[in-house]
């Protein structure tokens, strides 16, 4: 008859050690699993947020493409010609150096063609410019108090002091509003209101739908302009008036 062998003391000790180590690993393994689940949950939420944001942006752009118009009823008009014969629309970015360089010439044209050309401004804050959207929101907030042109001019005339900054300069833009004597409670409310940013993005999305891919981009009587020189720019304005 075979007799069952009794484990040696060494074997029993080894088995006990193995069981103890296994018992110690279980809580750690459980912790790792919990941490991994939490990480995957955070990633999933992040992906969902990005997906929603992208979907909203695509939806907005699609809507703009379906009904794209160079000028809207709510577009900001700097000067209006009585006959409405010639309209010049500029899609601009307040942080764009090229827009800043064009600004004095646009002001010159406004003076020279006063009463002959309707000048319209639309927002096109380029995403790579850190404060371009903040600046546009500040100008739009000012416009709600009838101070669009004043804030528009201040942004360009002081652009060299704030452009290309990599920090949020909304507080600085607020001081511009104070200097203009605006109702600051109303200004702060407008800046914080999502509808103000949405108004800026409406211009941007429609600009994309119209083929705007850089700033400044000008449309003359609904047609996108090609500008090689200031003389050429002026010649196109003169030709539109002559027609």
Automatic annotation (TrEMBL):
Species classification: Bacteria, Bacillati, Actinomycetota, Actinomycetes, Micrococcales
Organism: Herbiconiux sp. A18JL235
SUPFAM superfamilies from the UniProt entry: Thioredoxin-like (SSF52833)
Transmembrane segments: 30-52
InterPro entries, per the entry: Thioredoxin-like_fold, Thioredoxin-like_sf, Thioredoxin_domain
Keywords noted in UniProt: Disulfide bond, Membrane, Oxidoreductase, Plasmid, Redox-active center, Signal, Transmembrane, Transmembrane helix
Top-level taxon: Bacteria
Name of protein: DsbA family protein
Region (Disordered): 1-20
Cross-referenced Gene3D superfamilies: Glutaredoxin
């Amino acid at each position: 008859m075979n007799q069952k062998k009794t484990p040696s003391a060494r074997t029993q000790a080894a088995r006990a050690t193995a069981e103890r180590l296994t018992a110690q690993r279980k809580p750690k393994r459980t912790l790792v699993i919990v941490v991994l689940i939490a990480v995957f949950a955070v990633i999933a939420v992040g992906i969902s947020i990005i997906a929603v944001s992208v979907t909203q942006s695509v939806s907005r752009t699609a809507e703009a493409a379906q009904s794209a118009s160079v000028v809207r009823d709510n577009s900001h008009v700097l000067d209006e010609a009585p006959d409405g014969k010639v309209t010049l629309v500029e899609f601009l970015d307040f942080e764009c150096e090229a827009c800043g360089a064009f600004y004095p010439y646009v002001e010159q044209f406004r003076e020279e063609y006063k009463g002959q050309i309707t000048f319209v401004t639309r927002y096109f804050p380029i995403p790579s410019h850190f404060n371009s959207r903040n600046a546009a929101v500040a100008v739009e907030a000012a416009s709600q108090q009838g101070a669009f042109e004043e804030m528009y001019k201040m942004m360009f005339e002081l652009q060299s002091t704030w452009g290309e900054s990599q920090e949020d300069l909304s507080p600085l833009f607020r001081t511009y509003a104070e200097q203009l004597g605006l109702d600051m409670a109303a200004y702060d409310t407008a800046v914080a209101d999502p509808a103000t940013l949405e108004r800026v993005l409406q211009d941007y999305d429609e600009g994309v739908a119209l083929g705007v891919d850089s700033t400044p981009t000008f449309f003359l009587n609904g047609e996108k302009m090609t500008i090689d020189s200031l003389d050429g720019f002026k010649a196109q304005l003169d030709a539109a008036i002559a027609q």
